[in-house]
Amino acid sequence: MIYLNGDFLRIEEARISVLDRGFIFGDGVYEVIPVYSRKPFRLAEHLRRLQHSLDGIRLQNPHSDSEWTYLLEQIVALNEGEDQYIYLHITRGVARRDHAFPQGVAPTVFIMSNPLLTPPPGLLHTGVVAISAADNRWLRCDIKAISLLPNVLLRQMAIDEGALETVLFRDGFMTEGAASNIFVVRNGILLAPPKNHLMLPGITYDVVLELAQASGIPHEVRAITEHEVRTAEELLLTSSTKEIMPITRLDNQPVGEGKPGKMFALFYQLYQSYKQTTMRG
Ligand code: PLP
């Protein structure tokens, strides 16, 4: 079951107009929220980022946090699986095609939830393969915009080469992955690029840094050069649906020893324990 503009429907029954500005212009924002044991994970943080994205495109939030919480609880209850991921999507609504914002138009609100399949253990033992590319996206990557064509093309580039993700560089520095954030380990220190307009402020990224802080693991948030990525001891990829994964090959070269390293093992455990605590809490 999905939610569309006030109704809970079967997805086959859901209809939107071809004049929806999401369809015509990609004029909208979205969120992906993991759900563990039927509880949305880091919900307050996801709703805060949603507000940031809406502010970034100058679209009024159609719901209060408590209304969102209610709608998301309903969607989770109506769908199968203890672990799910919610996809929430808001567009500027339906209007005659014109670039200018329409007046007095209600936004389109769509929510669906699907079973969450976390990465298979085999992949966590071998690590994943990545390629790299120039970051050719716009300069507001901090907005979780539904217009994802560059990300789609960059991710497909990886798939075409038998890899899982594309690590992006802009002006000699690493930004993030096509649909993930990237951490770098050098000299036993966890390095994270600073949050700015060139990357999505990942919710998983924040969890990893909080865990590093709480466990006294040496870490630094600073700009990371392409050279530092290519000579890293470890590379870690994070996202809400992939959680935390080791990248063991980049552009056909091994990363460090070419197998998941100690920092990955540590953070994987920390992340799983943190999930358990939030499910109980
Ligand atoms: N960066 C991009 C471009 C993404 O699309 C995503 C998530 O899909 C992330 C980073 C990771 O963000 P989060 O940890 O909030 O899922």
Automatic annotation (TrEMBL):
Enzyme Commission number, as recorded: 2.6.1.-
Any one GO cellular component localisation term in the record: cytosol
Keyword presence, Transferase: yes
Class of the enzyme per the UniProt entry, highest EC level: transferase
Molecular function GO labels: transaminase activity
Domain of life according to the entry: Bacteria
Cofactor section: pyridoxal 5'-phosphate
This protein's UniProt keywords: Aminotransferase, Pyridoxal phosphate, Transferase
Keyword Transferase (UniProt): yes
InterPro entries, per database record: Aminotrans_IV, Aminotransferase-like, BCAT-like_C, BCAT-like_N, Class-IV_PLP-Dep_Aminotrnsfr
Single GO biological process annotation from the record: amino acid biosynthetic process
Protein family according to the UniProt entry: Belongs to the class-IV pyridoxal-phosphate-dependent aminotransferase family.
PANTHER family in alphabetical order: AMINO-ACID AMINOTRANSFERASE (PTHR42743), D-ALANINE AMINOTRANSFERASE (PTHR42743:SF10)
Record-given protein name: Branched chain amino acid: 2-keto-4-methylthiobutyrate aminotransferase
